[in-house]
């Protein structure tokens, strides 16, 4: 029995190694779920830059009123003229076109934050780089050979990969390893830092807002749910515990 266990655990080792090899470091997405203005900006970026290819059918436009947007604002800033506010955020493009144009159908993004996690999305949207071997001219650090072009490139600018030559000790051959990305051409949100380098803070903020909106879409009730959770805990602590204590005293009074 023990031998069998040892063999089974050994069999798992290569898997773990493979998993950690392909892993790119993920940057931590700032949590802004309690910041309605950040979520509104995220919704706007989503409507302007993503909705042409991706839908979010579990999200109805009028639900955006929960974020503090008025119906008029939603209509004039976020919607195509033909839609009504009670409708879900449907994709503008036909699925078959997506497949033909990009080699893959852009998935619905309603629950993408639950599938990928906020940190993955935050890193993904900031690590597109130029790659002439790809049909779109773009590749991505966390999604190798991705079918999606860098739709935010005007805002971010263009990044190019930086390679390092490493000798493979097993084969003796030299290999190119992608070690980092460098901003080659600045975008609309790029600022020039004091030392003359590029400052990407504004782009990072824009992506953070968008990612928070994606998280919000995946579970609009999340913040409320957490608040209810705290309220229940407080109730138990300050109301139920004292009541139980006094009840116990009352019951035992005659016995002592
Ligand atoms: C021009 C069309 C297009 C636009 C616009 C677009 N995407 Fe995509 N997206 C795609 C395609 C195509 C894929 C599928 C890529 C693949 O599977 O190789 C994709 C994939 C993705 C994925 C990965 C899904 C997965 O498989 O886990 C995410 C996340 C994503 N897009 C987010 C966004 C966001 C956020 C925006 C807006 C800023 C956006 N996309 C705008 C075409 C687009």
TrEMBL record:
Signal sequence interval, chain numbering: 1-19
Cofactor, free-text remark: Binds 1 heme c group covalently per subunit.
Name where it mostly resides. Answer: membrane
Protein's UniProt keywords contain Iron: yes
Q: Which InterPro entries match?
A: Cyt_c-like_dom, Cyt_c-like_dom_sf, Cyt_c1
Residues annotated to bind heme c: 50, 53-54
**GO cellular component annotations, sorted alphabetically?**
membrane
Annotated Cytochrome c domain residues: 37-218
Q: Which Pfam families match?
A: Cytochrom_C1
Q: Which domain of life is it from?
A: Bacteria
A single Gene Ontology MF term assigned here is:
electron transfer activity
This protein's cofactor list reads: heme c
Q: Where in the cell is it found?
A: Membrane
- Keywords assigned by UniProt? Heme, Iron, Membrane, Metal-binding, Signal, Transmembrane, Transmembrane helix
Transmembrane spans: 228-247
What is the designated name of this protein? Answer: Cytochrome c1
What is the source species? Chitiniphilus eburneus
């Amino acid at each position: 029995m023990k031998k069998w266990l040892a063999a089974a655990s050994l069999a798992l080792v290569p898997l773990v190694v493979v998993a950690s090899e392909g892993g790119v470091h993920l940057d931590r997405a700032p949590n802004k779920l309690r910041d309605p203005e950040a979520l509104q900006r995220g919704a706007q970026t989503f409507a302007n830059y993503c909705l042409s290819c991706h839908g979010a059918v579990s999200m109805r436009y009028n639900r955006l009123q929960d974020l503090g947007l008025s119906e008029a604002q939603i209509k004039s800033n976020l919607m195509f003229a033909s839609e009504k506010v009670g409708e879900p955020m449907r994709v503008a493009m036909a699925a078959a076109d997506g497949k033909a144009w990009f080699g893959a159908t852009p998935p619905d993004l309603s629950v993408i934050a639950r599938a990928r996690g906020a940190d993955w999305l935050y890193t993904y949207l900031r690590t597109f780089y130029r790659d002439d071997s790809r049909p779109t001219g773009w590749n991505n650090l966390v999604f190798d050979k991705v079918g999606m072009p860098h739709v935010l490139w005007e805002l971010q600018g263009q990044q190019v990969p930086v390679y390092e030559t490493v000798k493979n000790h097993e084969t003796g051959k030299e290999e190119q390893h992608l070690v980092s990305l460098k901003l080659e051409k600045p975008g609309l949100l790029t600022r020039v830092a004091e030392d003359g380098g590029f400052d990407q803070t504004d782009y990072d903020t824009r992506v953070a807002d968008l990612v928070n909106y994606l998280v919000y879409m995946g579970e609009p009730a999340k913040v409320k749910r957490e608040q209810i959770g705290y309220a229940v805990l407080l109730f138990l602590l300050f109301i139920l515990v004292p009541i139980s204590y006094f009840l116990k005293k009352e019951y035992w009074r005659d016995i002592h």
